[in-house]
Amino acid sequence: MEPTADELAGVVDLFGALTRAELRRALSELAFKRGAEPDDPGGAIDGAVASYHLVAVDGDDERLLVPGPAAFPELPEGAEDLPHIMDAPARSIDRERAGRAVEERFREEATLAVREGDDDAVERLLDVSYDLEAWGPVDVGGARERLRTAGEE
Length: 153
Prior knowledge:
Blueprint: H1 5-15, H2 20-33, H3 42-50, E1 54-58, E2 63-67, H4 82-85, H5 95-116, H6 119-135, H7 141-152
Antiparallel strand pairs: 1-2
C-alpha cells in the first residue's frame, strides 16, 4: 500500500496530529485490514513532509505531524476505523505554533533555493507560499517576492 500525500494527511487529520511512529502503525493497520503486506512508508512520509502535505511541529513531549498547507486530506479505504483500532490520543496543535514552525522552514528553503538557483524548487515554493498564508497565521510575502524575482532571472 503506497498512500498518497493527501491520504497520509487524511490519516493524520483523523487524530489531529500523529507521531511518525503512530502514522507508520496506522498504515500497517490499514494494510493488515486489506490483507496486504505493509510497505515501509518512510519514503512516502518524507515525501509528504517535503511537499508540505504534512508538517512537523514540536508537541509538548514529541515531534508531531499535522496536515500541512498543501494537503487536501483524503481518507484511504478503511481509515475511518483507525481511531477505534489504535491507541493514539486525539490531539490539537496550536495553529500559531505550527505556523511559526512552517514559516521558518519555508524561509530557509526559499533562501537555499534562491542561493542555489534551483528553478524547480523556486516554482514549487512559490506555489506553496500562497497555500501557506491561507493555512496559517503567517506572512511569507517577502520570501515569495525573493522567489518571484529569482524565478524571473
